[in-house]
Amino acid sequence: MEGDYHSIKVKLSLNKGQKATLNRLFGCCRFVLEDLNTNGMMKNHKLAKAIQDVSWFEIERQINYKSKKYGITVFMAGRFFASSKQCSHCKNIKHDLTLKDRVYVCTECGLVIDRDVNAAINLENLYKEQIGTGCPKSRLAG
Known about the structure:
Elements: H1 2-25, E1 30-34, H2 38-42, H3 45-53, H4 56-70, E2 73-77, E3 103-105, E4 112-114, H5 115-130
Parallel strand pairs: 1-2
Antiparallel strand pairs: 3-4
Helix pairs in contact: 1-4
């Protein structure tokens, strides 16, 4: 009985992940991901369960597969790019930022912003700096 429950849970999780990735890709012309050290993150017992629950590896695999299928650009930011620690306004690096800090407060320019929003802006800016601002034509977003 235990095996059956686990099998159903895995199938539901995969289906949920497929729907989530497909919904995110519709209307996009690009997808920016971070090359995170998930193996290292799995060693942190506080993060491990959350990473397993969202099927991190499977979601990334599906994003790459579906983006190729629909002509959507996937850009991978380098593992050591400081997306969370860099101020999206003045580029100052906050070396003492921890996982507990959910709000980014820049000591240089005074910017106060949600940590994840700050990281998303930095990732978008990195893409624009390295690739450009234009969206490649795709069947979904064109």
